[in-house]
Amino acid sequence: NAGVTQTPKFRVLKTGQSMTLLCAQDMNHEYMYWYRQDPGMGLRLIHYSVGEGTTAKGEVPDGYNVSRLKKQNFLLGLESAAPSQTSVYFCASSSRTSGSLQRPEQFFGPGTRLTVL
Amino acid sequence: AQKVTQAQTEISVVEKEDVTLDCVYETRDTTYYLFWYKQPPSGELVFLIRRNSFDEQNEISGRYSWNFQKSTSSFNFTITASQVVDSAVYFCALRSSYGQNFVFGPGTRLSVLP
User: Among partner residues B35, B43, B99, which is closest to A111 by beta-carbon distance?
Assistant: First the structure.
């Protein structure tokens, strides 16, 4: 199992450009998340999804859009990148909690380092 | 509302010292999960341990040990005989048994000096 993968690993954009970050998981998890982590800071939730075709806003959703057309994929889009979006982006997935859940933790991808000039 | 507090922003120790990282949480849920993650300088987030609110048994794994005390809403992490490779940011996290939300603490940056 690859777990959670993210594409690309690094990206440099100019202000105003757009891009899409791809997250894929092979654990059949219902829930998926996008976080950003600024230097020396903790994780901030951008958007999340509780299932295919559904998405919801997190703590810092402005400037981002997401889509979950397939259960295993969660895309994060930046329509018009700004320098304030320079950050490391982490995707994560987790199982739905029910009964005696064996592994309730989040599984994280390796991160995407994005720089907006 | 749920909240996780890691009051220690940064800790520096000399190699071979023991160090405890504090985690205090708030939740109204009767059942929940607690976690610790490690983020080394390379940047990835590494899962270390989970604890179910039903299980207050302490856990030891090599040089790592975790002390879960429901009475004080704490889930502290101790590294015995620290090593330089333990240098990282450590995050404590909370998840209700019902739902998808995880709440992370702000992290504690541990520096182990040779």
Answer: B43
Residues B22, B72 contacting (CB under 8 angstroms)? no
Q: Between B100 and A91, name the one with better pLDDT.
A: A91
Q: Which residue has the tokens 């440099």?
A: A12
* Mean local confidence (pLDDT), B63-91: 96
**Most distant pair of Cα atoms in chain B: their distance:** 44
DSSP state of B99: S
Distance from CA of A100 to the nearest CA of B (A): 10
For chain B, count helices (H), then strands (E): 0, 12
The DSSP symbol for B44 reads -
Place of tokens 């889009």: A77
In this predicted structure, what is the pLDDT of residue A98? 58
pLDDT confidence of A117, banded at 50, 70, 90?
Answer: very high
Contact of B93 with chain A, judged by CB distance below 8 Å, is answered with yes
On average, the pLDDT of chain A sits at 93
Question: Helices in chain B by DSSP H: which ranges?
Answer: none
SS3 A83: helix
Is pLDDT above 80 for A100? no
- Residue where the block lists tokens 């397939």: A70
A88 CB neighbours in chain B (<8 A) are 43
Helix (H, G, I), strand (E, B) or coil at A65: strand
The answer on pLDDT for B64 being more than 80 is yes
